[in-house]
Amino acid sequence: MNQGKRIVVIGAGIVGASLAYHLAGKGAKVTVVDAGDVACGVTATSFAWINTTCDAPDPIASLRSAAIDAYHRLEHELPDVKIRWTGALCYGPNIQPRANSRITRERIQALEPQLKNPPEYAQFEAEEGALDAAQTTHALIAAAQALGARLLTHNPVLGFSRQGSQVTGVETSRGVIHADRVVLAAGTGTAALTSLLGLPLPIDASPAIFIRYSAPPGIVHTLISNPEMEVRESAEGIWLAAEDYFGNAPEHQPAAIARRTALAIAGELEGVTSIQPQLACVGLRPIPVDGLPIIGELPSANGVYVCVMHPGVTLAAIVGQLVSEEIMESITSPALAPCRPERFFNPEKS
Length: 350
What we know:
Layout: E1 6-10, H1 14-25, E2 29-33, E3 49-50, H2 61-77, E4 83-84, E5 88-90, E6 102-104, H3 105-111, E7 121-125, E8 129-131, H4 133-146, E9 150-152, E10 157-163, E11 166-172, E12 175-178, E13 181-184, H5 190-196, E14 203-214, E15 223-226, E16 229-233, E17 239-244, H6 254-268, E18 276-288, E19 294-297, E20 304-308, H7 312-329
Helix pairs in contact: 1-4, 1-7, 2-7
């Protein structure tokens, strides 16, 4: 009965692209709308670590644990989705490795022989990896288009069409797009969209620094995360780093942080004869106020489904799969239970 259902996905980042691909694969007539271009938001400034571990109690542990299998499936289905499964090496005073992922200095040196001062022990998650988030997003959009999806970029959403409590379409700068279901996957822009419906969601735009370097290839073998640096090497030999954002003071500007981080990396690794920043910028991550994804039907706005989260790259593949099953096949996933939007609304008013 859902074959041919008209679905508008607002947002052409990696989450929206995954939703479009999975929904189109189940027979939906998908239209992807974005105020900018494909992967023009935080997707383009993501460190893109497929990080499935969490030290604290984690209500979405089942989602994280399914993320890697979902990405392996995408690699099989879409040859243009390319992931570097290098593993992630983490150490520092705040890291207490689990028994099944704890490695000693000898193993650390084998994994990362260029480390100047390898620690006594570290945590190594061999199954983790990283990807080019923008390239993966383009691959997902192209695959969705091959399945019949339509892409409308540079087309801001201005409002929603309604019949009573039912949302029936999206009002854009190019006119109304009629829909049986609207999926909000616009990252930090999602809060403004739900506010247009009178149902604001508490989503913070959390800044982080993304840095790209030219540096000697073949020095960094895994993804290294320690108090001094978070760095990995891309398939093209470019080094990528991520740093916390500390404000707008001159010493905290992205270019200044990139220079300090380069010095820190050179101090940690042998053989870094040169390391030059190519790009340093701030990315705004969409983080719901309680830290959990917001995924599900928006109360009191029939026909609207919300899908916003951090970490978006890690969860994009599995969330695209589960949400498409929910929308197209009415298969409710227990893994999404902690993520429902209802937690932010008074049930008596929603």
